[in-house]
C-alpha cells in the first residue's frame, strides 16, 4: 500500500510541471483571444505580453508610449487605438468628437472617470471624481461658492503674496555665483513647492500650522511617487506608501474643515476657499438638525477633507506644469514676452506697494490669452482615463467592452482644428478677427468637458496670469537652452525635460512688499 501511494505521488510530481505548463499555455491563449475579441477592427498590437502587456514601456518611456498610440490612431483613420497592460484592455481616443462622446457620457451604464488606472485604491472612496448623476450635481452646487467673483477676488491677494515670496527666494538662490557667473537652476520643483504653499493658503488658510504643512509636503511627495509607480498594494511599495499618505492628508484636511465650520458658525468672514464652502454648509447642517433631520449628504468633515485633497491634487501638479511651460514659451517668443510686460506695466508697477487688483487682472486681456494658449499648447493633464461600466457603442463600427480603460487625449485635441496648431500663438485667443476660442471651442479641452469639467478652471487661469504678470515684472530670465530641453516628460503631468532650467536676475528697482 505504501509503495502504491508513493508511486502515485511520484507520478503526480512527474506530471505536475506538464499540467502547470498546460495551464499557463491555456491562460496565454485565452488572454490573446480575449484581447483580439475586444480589439475588434481597431488598430493595436497583434500579440501582447501575458498579463503585463505594455506596462514596462509605459513606465520607462510614457512620452514615447502615448505618442506611438496617437500615431497609430491617426494612421488608422479611426481616431482610436488599442493596447493592454496589467490584465486590462485599453482604448486610446485621439479624435476630438469621440473624446467629447466619452466625457459627456459619465454615468453608471456608460463611462466612469477614474483619474488613474487604479485610482479608487489610491484616492479612497470619498472622492469627487467618482461621483455622477444627481449626487455629483449636488456636490458641484455646494462647491459653487468657492469660485464666485467675490471668492476669486479674495484669493488674488493671497496668491500674489506667496508668488512674490517665492520669487524672492529664487533670486536669493541666484545670488550664489561661481566664477562670476550666475548658476542656472531648475524651477520645476520650486514652482511645485510654491504652488503647494499657494494651494494650502488659498484652500485652508489659517487652519494649517507650519508643522502640518511640513507633514503635508512629505506625504504629498510620497503620493506623487506612488502615482507613477507600479501599483503593487503591499507594504514597502511606493503605491502603498502613496495610498497611506493620501489617507493622512485627507484626515489633516478634515481637521481644517472642522475649524472652518466652527469659525463660520461664529460669524467669521471668509478668508479662504474652505470658508466660502462652509458658509452655506453649516447653515444647511444646522437647519437640518433643528428639524430633527440627519445632516445633508457631502457635509461631514471626512468627506469634505477628501474633496479638498481632490482640489489640491488638481491644482498642484497641473499648475506646476503650466507655470513651467509659460516660462519656456515666454523665453522662446520674445515678442510675446514684450507684449505681456508692456500690458502689465500699463496697469501695475512693483513700486506701487499694492498687489495687482482683481480689476487690473481683468484688464490683462493679452496675458489672459497667453495663459489660454499655454494650456492649449501644453495641457498639463494630457489624458483623462475612464472605465467602461457597461458595453458602449462609441462609433458605428465599434462598441467599447465593459471594463475597458478608455484614455481620451485632450493633448491630441489641442492640435486639431486650430489654425497652425503646432505654433505657439496667443493671438488665436486675443484677436477679434480670429476668435479661435469660439471657432474651435470643442478642441479646447485642457479643463475637460461634460459633467466633470474642471470646476476650478477660472482659479487656475487666474493663477497662471498672476504668476506671469509678476514673474516678467520682477525678473529678467533666460532659459539654459540645450537640445531636447523642452521634450515632454510625465511626472505625472507633463513638464519640460530639463525641469525648466533658467538664469534669473532682479529686474525691478524695488521688490514689492504687500
TrEMBL record:
Q: Which UniProt keywords apply?
A: Heme, Iron, Membrane, Metal-binding, Monooxygenase, Oxidoreductase, Transmembrane, Transmembrane helix
Where, in this chain's numbering, is heme bound? 454
**Lineage: superkingdom:** Eukaryota
Pfam families with a match to the protein in the record: p450 (PF00067)
Whether Glycoprotein counts among this entry's keywords is no
Give the matching Gene3D superfamilies: Cytochrome P450
Which co-factor is required? heme
What sections of the protein cross the membrane? 12-30
Protein name (Swiss-Prot/TrEMBL): sterol 22-desaturase
Gene source species: Eragrostis curvula
